């Protein structure tokens, strides 16, 4: 897998704010969340202790959502085809994923993991996926094969899930919930998707710069996520993007360079921006975001 622009499409802009400020300098923690660079910005006298707690929460959630940790809840579910007593966070994230799947009319579908694996194996061999390989993967793709109950998650035989199109945003939301429960505010969490808790410590909104568009977007008490059909590619030629169509089995066509969506939660923004990459028109993206309260299309770059 060859990373390109996926995780740098949104970044907090280091813009100087006019006028003097009595606020403490903004502390910046940097780490990793699900393989992406993560940062937390806040102004607090105990900033290092606060961000250490947030980092521990990120690590805990990776043990639920990572596809690269054999013992994670998601990896166990994919390997066994079922998971008893699933963690609450996995249940909640799947519930959100199901909602995005519905409003996107099936374009967002976490059951594309077998398709992703088939494309990745073919790309590593220097070739395109065959029709037979694609058909086999499509045969075990489909949200109707996922059964979610509080005490057990079950997959149809041969299925596997990926939450890479929503879990980074969900992790940002959980960190925001953790810190918000402590009474903290004016924090910007970036796990590849952005979640603002309050505004900038020195006043005003967080100024967020979109790498593909240049203009700053104000962010306060909400989330932004950007997806790009070829933000991460599986092949050396850069033609096989990581966002896959659950109907055709093919990568999203590069009709959009990137799509940025805002929402109340980073999980929703993340899932909606991923689905938007598979939408055929701007109008269809607007129709999708219109089905979620407070969701909005922020920018499309063609």
Number of strands: 15
Following the backbone from N to C, one meets helices and strands in this order, namely: EEEEHHEHHHEEHEEEEEEEHHE
Query: What top-tier CATH class fits best?
Result: Alpha Beta
For the termini, the CA-CA separation is: 24 Å
What is the rounded Rg? 19 Å
**CATH homology-level superfamily:** ApbE-like domains
Shape: globular
Largest pleated sheet: 7 strands, antiparallel
CATH fold descriptor: T-fold
Give the rounded overall mean pLDDT.
Answer: 91
Structural class: alpha+beta
As laid out across the biggest beta sheet, the strand order is 3-4-8-9-12-14-15
Detail the poorly predicted runs. Answer: 1-20
Which architecture does the CATH hierarchy give at level 2? Roll
Into which percentage range does the β-strand content fall?
Answer: 15-25%
Q: Figure out the total of helices.
A: 8
Number of structural units classed as domains = 1
Secondary structure: helix percent? 25-40%
What does this structure look like?
32% of the residues lie in helices and 22% in strands. It has a single domain (2-13, 27-301), classed as ApbE-like domains (T-fold), CATH 3.10.520.10. It is built from 8 helices and 15 strands. The two termini are 24 Å apart. α1 runs antiparallel to α6 and α4 runs antiparallel to α5 (131-139). The protein has 302 residues and is of the alpha+beta class. Residues 1-20 have low confidence and may be disordered.
């Amino acid at each position: 897998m060859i990373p390109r622009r996926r995780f740098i499409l949104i970044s907090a802009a280091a813009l100087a704010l006019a006028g003097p400020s009595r606020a403490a300098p903004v502390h910046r923690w940097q780490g990793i969340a699900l393989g992406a660079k993560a940062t937390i910005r806040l102004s607090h006298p105990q900033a290092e202790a606060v961000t250490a707690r947030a980092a521990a929460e990120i690590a805990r959630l990776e043990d639920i959502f990572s596809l690269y940790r054999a013992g994670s809840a998601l990896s166990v579910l994919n390997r066994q085809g079922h998971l008893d007593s699933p963690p609450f966070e996995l249940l909640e994230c799947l519930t959100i994923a199901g909602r995005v799947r519905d409003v996107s009319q099936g374009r967002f579908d976490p059951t594309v993991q077998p398709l992703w694996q088939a494309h990745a194996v073919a790309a590593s061999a220097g070739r395109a996926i065959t029709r037979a390989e694609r058909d086999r993967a499509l045969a075990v793709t489909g949200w109707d094969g996922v059964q979610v109950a509080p005490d057990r998650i079950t997959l149809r035989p041969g299925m596997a899930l990926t939450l890479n199109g929503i879990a980074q945003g969900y992790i940002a939301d959980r960190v925001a919930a953790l810190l918000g429960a402590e009474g903290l505010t004016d924090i910007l969490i970036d796990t590849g998707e952005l979640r603002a808790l309050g505004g900038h410590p020195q006043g005003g909104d967080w100024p967020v710069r979109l790498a593909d568009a240049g203009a700053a977007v104000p962010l306060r008490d909400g989330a932004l996520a950007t997806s790009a059909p070829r933000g991460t590619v599986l092949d050396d030629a850069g033609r096989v993007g990581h966002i896959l169509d659950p109907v055709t089995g093919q990568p999203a066509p590069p009709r959009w360079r990137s799509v940025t969506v805002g929402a109340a939660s980073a999980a929703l923004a993340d899932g909606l921006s991923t689905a938007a990459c598979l939408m055929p028109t701007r109008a269809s993206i607007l129709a999708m975001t219109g089905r979620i309260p407070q969701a909005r299309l922020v920018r499309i770059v063609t």
